[in-house]
Write a structure and sequence with these properties.
mainly beta, globular, single chain, about 700 residues, five-stranded mixed β-sheet
């Protein structure tokens, strides 16, 4: 780790010699297109060229190459069951980092991670990362920031056809067919994607199929977008490798690729459709978005004698406008809008899949939110810009659990969780300033408030102190953020250093120590840290990138009540580290143009040790060990083709990024780990005709 930090410091902060011209970078996660150099925030953009250079196979792997972003990966199989964490939220990272696809929310109203495999890398144009900002524009779930994945535009003139295929270790096969046509004011693109892999673990075969189509009409000052997509995944769930020193149990050492649950599986079917209408009226811009998403998940857990059929749907209406104007001699760019979201959840639960047609328990829940926001970017002078914003949002919850005593799976002891309703109101605000300190240096500072509402799993997956099912709506989580940074740009070179602090109150998470395990509002916590990243041209053909993040995530105060069946009572968490947050993370990468058409690129990610999930009091001895993973990619361009050889986990490291400890007597020294794949070799080919 010390070696990796030293190398990152040398690569990022030694001033390079060769200069290149760098064009302005535009992001769309700000609701309307905006140059990142106008915004008082730490923003990174992963371009299409960056994606081609990277040996990453999935979006989470690509994101982990960025400073301050970590991932918790259960299987290492095409991004399945993988979560992304920005700025040290740990296991709640997916609920505090808002993920957008072409500006549309795809973070769901449950605890399942984003379906990353439904967004293949080969179809991504760029990725926008907005650290610490976004709560005013998007509301719920953006305390750590916003990540916007932008796919290819269907208005690129002419016709194009692309065929992509990849063969890799573990019997992995991946392919995509992409086509587009644009002429005049109309454009269309469509893709079909398939992926299969046996996976590194037993019972971890993954099959994924996606289809998508985008249409766009642009007539004068009016643009109409239509988007459609479907995806399907079938995935084996191997469970954890269990370790318990007191009994001599060590499945990880004995067979790290084995399965604890050889018959568990999950299937997931998703579909989406969206419409966006944009209009330019003089200097003003208007936009209205209407989006619908639905997913159906069926899962079987044999050892738990449990089966579920979960249906989740979302409908969103998002009108907004940007109006530039002059007032008091200052230039303003005012963005204002309304967000309306409606979520519906229908969960059928029984002991066997064959009984889900008439389940013993059927949980239904809804959440409806409505919000108004306003944000103004003000030019205080030629070198200074001020950003001011506010958002008010209301959420209405309703949930009920129906018990069917006539169901085939009813055994006489199952119970209903009853019903619950609640209405909550929250607000967010942001104040930021960006000032050019010269031709090459820029400083920024910002402060803001954000919030998160409880999701459906946190409302319905409850058990009271007597181990009876229960429903509850927890208090909304609130967070206050302050941060500042300094940037240096010269041609194609870039360096950034930033510091941040996030104080979180009523964080929503599982309390594993209180009898009657359930979700709760955790004691107050704080995330603070330092982020460094840079890139530069060492020679005309050699480009270097590097990053380092120091994250100190701790509880500020508080006690976990515990209970007779758990590891203890009244467990203090004051000053303890938040689980699943590495204190140090280093990234280093290079891209070397060996010849005019041949490129060798590589990336190193090194992560320090972490506290295991379920160990908020930090009383458990074992930790998730530090690890380092290196990837290489050799690519060669032909006239209409590109061939690449990738090696992931070059040094065949044995590691895992997620582990969870047991909390119930007598298994208090037991924990489970999720081993990730060793060295993997892949060969890909891409053919383009335009």
């Amino acid at each position: 780790m010390r070696f990796a930090i030293s190398m990152a410091a040398v690569a990022a902060f030694a001033l390079p010699v060769y200069a290149q011209q760098e064009d302005s970078v535009v992001v769309t996660a700000t609701r309307f297109s905006e140059d990142v150099r106008r915004l008082p925030a730490s923003i990174s953009v992963i371009t299409a060229d960056d994606i081609q250079k990277s040996a990453a196979r999935t979006l989470p792997e690509l994101l982990q190459e960025q400073a301050g972003i970590t991932m918790n990966d259960f299987f290492g199989n095409n991004g399945s069951s993988t979560s992304v964490d920005l700025r040290g939220f740990g296991v709640t990272g997916p609920q505090n980092t808002l993920i957008l696809l072409d500006g549309r929310r795809i973070t769901d109203f449950d605890l399942t991670s984003v379906q990353w495999a439904a967004i293949p890398l080969v179809g991504v144009e760029r990725v926008e990362i907005l650290r610490g900002t976004g709560a005013v524009l998007y509301g719920d779930g953006a305390s750590a920031g916003v990540i916007n994945i932008v796919t290819r535009s269907p208005l690129k003139q002419g016709a194009a056809l692309q065929v992509f295929g990849r063969l890799a270790s573990l019997n992995t096969r991946e392919g995509q067919l992409y086509g587009s046509y644009a002429g005049g004011n109309f454009g269309i693109n469509a893709s079909v994607y398939g992926f299969t892999s046996d996976g590194y673990r037993a019972n971890n075969r993954n099959e994924q199929h996606n289809s998508a189509a985008n249409l766009r009409w642009a007539v004068g000052n009016t643009t109409l977008d239509l988007r459609f997509g479907v995806d399907k995944q079938d995935l084996g769930l191997p469970g954890a490798r269990r370790i318990q020193p007191s009994t001599g149990l060590d499945e990880y050492t004995a067979n790290r690729r084995g399965a604890q649950t050889p018959q568990d599986y999950a299937s997931r079917d998703g579909s989406r459709a969206g419409l966006a209408l944009s209009q330019v009226l003089g200097d003003a811009e208007l936009s209205v978005g209407l989006d619908w998403r639905e997913k159906l998940q069926i899962s079987r857990f044999v050892q738990q004698v449990s089966a579920r059929n979960d249906a989740l749907s979302a409908l969103s209406l998002t009108p907004r406008a940007r109006v530039p104007f002059q007032l008091g001699g200052l230039s303003h760019r005012l963005t204002l809008g309304i967000d309306w979201h409606s979520w519906r959840y229908d969960s059928r639960r029984d002991s066997a899949v064959q009984n889900l047609g008439q389940p013993v328990n059927r949980l239904r829940a809804t959440q409806r939110t409505q919000a108004f926001y306003v944000q103004d970017l003000i030019e205080l002078g030629k070198a200074t810009r001020l950003n001011v914003g506010w958002r008010g949002e209301q959420a209405r919850f309703a949930a009920s659990d129906a018990l069917d005593v006539t169901a085939p799976g009813f055994l006489g002891f199952q119970q209903s969780a009853g019903s619950t309703r609640d209405t909550q109101n929250q607000h967010a605000w942001e104040l930021g300033v960006r000032h050019d300190l010269g031709r090459e240096y820029t400083g920024y500072a910002r402060a803001g408030r954000s919030f998160r509402f409880a999701n459906v799993d946190e409302i319905t997956s409850e058990i009271d102190a007597a181990f009876n099912p229960a429903l509850q709506v927890l208090r909304a989580q609130r967070a206050r953020t302050v941060e500042g940074g300094l940037e240096w740009r010269s041609g194609g070179h870039f360096l950034r250093a930033g510091v941040f602090r996030i104080d979180v109150t009523d964080e929503i998470h599982l309390d594993p120590f209180t009898t009657g395990v359930g979700n709760t509002n955790l004691p107050p916590s704080r995330r603070q840290g330092l982020e460094l990243d840079g890139r530069g041209q060492a020679t005309p053909g050699l480009r270097l990138t590097a990053g380092y993040a120091y994250t100190d995530a701790r509880f500020r105060e508080g006690v976990m009540p515990g209970g007779a069946l758990t590891i203890g009572t009244n467990l203090s968490v004051a000053g303890k580290r938040v689980p699943l947050v590495p204190q140090h993370k280093v990234n280093a990468g290079f891209s070397w143009d060996i010849g005019s058409k041949t490129r060798l690129s590589g990336a190193l990610t090194a992560v320090s040790a972490q506290v295991m999930d379920n160990d908020e009091p930090n009383v458990f001895g074992p930790r998730i060990p530090a690890y380092a993973v290196a990837d290489l990619k050799l690519a060669h361009e032909f006239s209409i083709a590109r061939v690449a050889l990738t090696v992931n986990n070059l040094f065949d490291s044995n590691y895992y990024s997620y582990a969870i400890r047991g909390q119930f007597v007598p298994n208090t020294d037991r924990y489970g780990v999720y081993p990730l794949p060793g060295r993997s070799v892949g060969l890909s080919a891409e053919f383009k005709m335009e």
